[in-house]
User: Fold Single-stranded nucleic acid binding R3H domain protein from Gloeothece verrucosa.
Amino acid sequence: MLDPKTNNISTSTIFNTEPLLLMPEKFPSQRMQITDDLNQLLAILPPQIREIIEQHPKHSHLVEVVMDLGRLPEARFADVAIDLGNTPVSKEDLQHCIHRVGSFSGDNRAGIERTLHRISAIRNRTGEIIGLTCRIGRAIFGTISMIEDLVETGQSILMLGRPGVGKTTALREIARVLADDYNKRVVIIDTSNEIAGDGDIPHPAIGRARRMQVARPELQHQVMIEAVENHMPEVIVIDEIGTELEALAARTIAERGVQLVGTAHGNRIENLIKNPTLSDLVGGIQAVTLGDEEARRRGSQKTVLERKAPPTFQIAVEMLERQRWVVHEDVAETVDNLLRGREPVLQVRTVDEHGEVKITQEESQPVINGTMAKSATSVAPARPTGWRASGRMAPVTPLASSHKNGKTLEFDRMLEQSWLQEEPVTEKVRTPGPNGEDLPVYVYPYGISRSQLDQVIDLLNLPVSVTKDLNGADAVLALRSHVKNHSKLRQISKARQVPIYGIKSNTIPQISRGLQRLLGMDDPKLPEAFDLRLFTRGGNDDEIEALEEARLAVEQIVIPTGQPVELLPRSAKIRKMQHELVEHYRLQSDSLGEEPNRRLRIYPA
Assistant:
């Protein structure tokens, strides 16, 4: 507690002269005070171990003391661990500590009355204690300055982070601020007596907040419900939500209008989404089957994952580092973006050496070896890049406005506006084309055979890439019947200024002609180059021979002389290939005769 005369803490006070827990070096002492009651923890240790710690120059920044039977005792600091003497820990040393602490609960934790220290036990197979971890608990006043504006909103807050990053310390300070500064009725569910300390009287660090202890860890969810039903809290503070029952209890509390502040196992929101036990904290995940049109609109599979319900916690804070937190002010939106494969923009909050909070926006990066890569916010280009920027593409359906030099004024206006918009992050790789455009062109197929489309692109070596994302497409290639019947596709394409190129049928010649028209390669004065392999299915000699027969008949007889030609009898499969080849020459053909003598007749134009 603070002494009003000296502005110091009445217990053992350590000012922040070196890095300690959350705050960096060179902080003003008035900015943050720390109380750790270190002497009371040292008092339970064996004398020879206690003397070595007291003589260490950085003993005030001790994190924990580890004592394992038959090993040297170890003192761990934030950046280094040292051995305490040359004498291994004996059973007598362990018993010396055990007799001076409270009883160990079901989760093998004990404490020192009216302190925040935690002593955790390691037992052998018979239940005998053979190791102790004595963790120093510190109350740090002023650690939540980064999110104090979020705390006062009354929305539920979930804290995420790896062990030792300061989640419990922040939780304790949030409880104190809400109870003392905002005069709210705060109840802490203290399962391990880690938030408010051991003993029946809570530690002064929680201020006016009340504390409910839990007899056994598996009963935490029951005590959570009991707190709401019996004590009329405005805020419930919970540490370590780890089971499905606790997640359900948290949802029940949130639906009753009580603000929740808690921590959960997991470093990032992605961890909770993948955790079936705790996914309900962020809304729960369910598989949904989409209709054909909706799946095409999204460019996704028909079965997708979606959020099942509103999140229990509206705000999530990822404590990546002690001075760097990532804030998600709308958990629902973040989860929806992640499930649809979109990386959310992160709000990163940091504290500088003068105690000033800095808020920046960063693009989410993939997690590599458990660490998120950092990236500054990208700046939108002054003008767009890509195929549309070359000015060669225009919508198929004219807009209802006056024209100017072959382009609509409405299109020009929307194009100007698009220059100021931030382009989405994609994996597109483009190279300059012969006319200054960027290649390849990203085409969104609608009702087109993907295998035939890939075959045409590959054999003709066209600068085209097929995409499933309509937002990132440069053009749409679709059947004319689909375009005519689906007004929604036309509306979306018109809104995004993505032109639609229609083809008559789902055949190789039509697909080839549509792509060439899209690329501006369909000059009628130039002969159309093609490869017979475009029209084959298996690519065997029989198919090539039949197609070569049709090609020679067209080029040497039908076109020069204007006479019809009948080909040799072929199977139905090969006749279909020959029909497609004839269509490529813009000629007509029919099948006549009876099997097995059914054959193709080619007519002149």
